[in-house]
């Protein structure tokens, strides 16, 4: 059985929009302005190498599909070769290899995916998808790389939910220039 692992670059005020600088957000590329250091880079590489699949929203998928196929190296090779699942009602013909479009009810599709796919199914970015996953209690682990910056505007990670969602801090560490890596699990999860 698979586990849904959400991993996000996030500002202190909860913004996750355009950390890489490719989406025309006025603060685009903000995550590159603060060093996450070698330990932060290793965390991201290890996270990717341990993943069995990617689960992405359409916008994040399209950005990744444009960027990653032309890159090489250990990180890029893993991204390009692993199975990729994209939640979309509009994407018809994904061109990035090993990509499958999941249509219909998000909770139903992701629950089915968790049954069919073993290991960590990692969600990068995709804030609308993450909101739906949190709403339906489908996130097994939430990894936040919190950068010490307040952006003041932009798409935030957490939207409204129909009820409160209790989490338990499973791990924390500081890397680079004050970047906090916080790992949360649902409060009912065993350590």
Judging from the principal axes of the Cα atoms, what is the shape?
globular
Low-pLDDT stretches are none
Q: Give the proportion of residues in helices.
A: 25-40%
Largest sheet: 8 strands, mixed
CATH fold-level name = Dihydrofolate Reductase, subunit A
Order of helices and strands: EHEHHEEHEHEEE
Number of domains: 1
Widest sheet, order of strands? 4-3-2-5-1-6-8-7
CATH class type:
Alpha Beta
Distance between the termini: 18 Å
Q: Mean pLDDT, rounded to whole units?
A: 94
| Structural class designation | alpha/beta
- Radius of gyration from the CA trace? 16 Å
Strand content: 25-35%
CATH superfamily: Dihydrofolate Reductase, subunit A
Number of helices: 5
Q: How many extended strands?
A: 8
For the record, the CATH architecture stands as 3-Layer(aba) Sandwich
């Amino acid at each position: 059985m698979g586990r849904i692992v959400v991993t996000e670059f996030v500002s202190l005020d909860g913004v996750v929009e355009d950390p890489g600088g490719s989406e025309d957000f006025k603060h685009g590329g903000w995550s590159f302005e603060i060093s996450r250091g070698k330990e932060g880079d290793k965390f991201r590489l290890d996270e990717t190498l341990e993943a069995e699949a990617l689960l992405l929203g359409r916008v994040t998928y399209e950005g990744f599909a444009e960027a990653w196929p032309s890159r090489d190296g250990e990180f890029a090779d893993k991204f390009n070769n692993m199975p990729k699942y994209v939640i979309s009602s509009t994407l018809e013909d994904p061109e990035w290899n090993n990509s499958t479009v999941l249509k219909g009810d998000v909770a139903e599709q992701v629950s089915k995916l968790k049954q069919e796919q073993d290991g960590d199914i990692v969600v990068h970015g995709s804030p609308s998808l993450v909101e739906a996953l949190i709403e339906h209690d489908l996130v097994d682990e939430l990894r936040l790389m919190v950068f010490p910056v307040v952006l003041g505007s932009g798409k935030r990670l957490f939207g409204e939910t129909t009820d409160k969602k209790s989490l338990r801090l499973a791990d924390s560490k500081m890397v680079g220039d004050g970047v906090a890596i916080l790992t949360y699990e649902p409060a009912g999860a065993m350590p």
